[in-house]
Each structure stands twice: as structure tokens, then as C-alpha cells.
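User: Earlier you gave me the apo prediction for this protein. Now I'd like the version with flavin mononucleotide bound, so I can compare the two side by side. Same sequence as before, with the ligand SMILES added.
Assistant: Got it. Here's the input I'm using:
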Amino acid sequence: MPQLIRLFYVSRATQKGVDQVITDILRVAREFNASNGITGILTFDGEHFTQVLEGSGAGVNALMTRITRDDRHKDVRVLSSEPIHDRYFQQWAMNYIYDIRLVEEVSQYFGIIQPEADEVIEFIEDLREYALRLG
Ligand SMILES: Cc1cc2nc3c(=O)[nH]c(=O)nc-3n(C[C@H](O)[C@H](O)[C@H](O)COP(=O)(O)O)c2cc1C
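And here is the structure of the complex with flavin mononucleotide:
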């Protein structure tokens, strides 16, 4: 089995709160990810995206190259990319959370030089809890 990685980035949306943009991203993402062994979660708070991508190193990095070029967001900042044994989001080709309460927390990630690894993992684990609660 290829080595799995989990990548986490934050970015700023180029348009504010456009539902159609999210619908389009999720439609393409869910189809592509499901057939390419990619799982994860996307969050949007009206201003920023965060996304966790899990899969083979080659698969995640190739997808990330495409995502980075996407002009529906900017200031893409990869905060973590680590080998993993187990997926956190294994049942979701791309889960999605919209929550305006993320604005404050995610905004910090653009100011800090490099957030502590523990802090980033805690944030990802919180997203996982949230996703599991919502089912
Ligand atoms: C915030 C954000 C997250 C995205 N996540 C994914 C994803 O998980 N999987 C995916 O296939 N495309 C995702 N996309 C869409 C890609 O950027 C890209 O449009 C899509 O993969 C089609 O690639 P292409 O335009 O090079 O054909 C995302 C786009 C944005 C803006």
C-alpha cells in the first residue's frame, strides 16, 4: 500500500459566501476524490477555506497542485503535510462544514509565521469530532 499522507491548508475565498461556488467545488471534489482514494473535509466560514486531504502522497500532492492554481481562492497556505497510518475522514470523499464561528480561529493562521504542529493537529481533530457528530 502506498504511504498515506494528510495535508492541511488554509486559503482565502476570492468571492464572499457564494453558494454556487461551494456546490461546484463539492460536486467535482466528491466525484474525483471518490475515484482516486482521496478523503477529507472542506470548511468555509464565509471568508476562508480550510481543507484536509488524505490519500497517497502522489495523489494528494498532484491534487494540491491543481487546487492551488484554482482562482476561486488565494493565499493558499499549507500548514501541515505528514505521513499517517490511519485516515481521520475515511468515510468522506469530501465532507463539508459551513460555520461562521471559524472566522476568528482561521484568521489567525494567516498571521502566525508557522503555527505549532500540535495546534494544527488539534484543529484537524476538532474538525473530525465535528464531522462525526454531524454524521
Ligand atoms: C477550496 C477548494 C477546494 C477544492 N477541493 C477539491 C478536491 O478535494 N478535489 C477535487 O478534485 N477538486 C477540488 N477543487 C477543485 C480543483 O481546484 C479543480 O478545479 C478541479 O480539481 C478540476 O481540475 P481542473 O480544473 O484542473 O480540471 C477544489 C477547489 C477549491 C477552490
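For your comparison, keep in mind: The two ends are 28 Å apart (CA to CA).
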